[in-house]
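Fig. S4 source data, part A: sequence.
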Amino acid sequence: MEKRKLSDFVSFVQGVNQSRAEKQFGDQEIPYYDQASFEDDYRHYNEINQEEKINESFTSEVTLDKRDIVISNSLQRATMVGETNIGKVLSINFTKVNFINEELDKHYFLYLFNNYQDIQRQKERELQGTGPILRLTKQSLEKLIIPIVPLKEQRQIGAIYVESLKAQSKLSEYARLLEKFTGTMLETKLKE
């Protein structure tokens, strides 16, 4: 299996400092892509209509569109932007992934970045910072070495990854409902 640098397939755009963004966009109110936005996209990633693409309201390299890939620098996780976060401006804690060619499938990238053990080890070695918050830098992301398989296999792996996320989401919902049901039953029993 061939292995190549991630930077052969993608480029990275760092989020902006809020004070710089306010200068760039002038008097417009700027909706920032923040941790809550990331968590919403990460939680609902498997629900995104994978084909539809909607234009952004701002025109900027740091503005997000549906199906863009965003990395949380502190969580070292990636997700796909959903409809609720279209047009938001990427804040400094996030990095946007621009695919420079058609040789790397987005879902395959997400699988590699979030789950592939070799990439996890590489990310751990590249973390920088002090104290409890360690981050991935743009330079460390560019150094990552990824396995390259034919595009058809990438799409299959990506599809399996999305299906596993759907199953995990359903299992989490069932666990939450079971916990609620059990709690209700036990409380009813205690009241008798």
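Fig. S4 source data, part B ends here. The chain has a mean pLDDT of 84.
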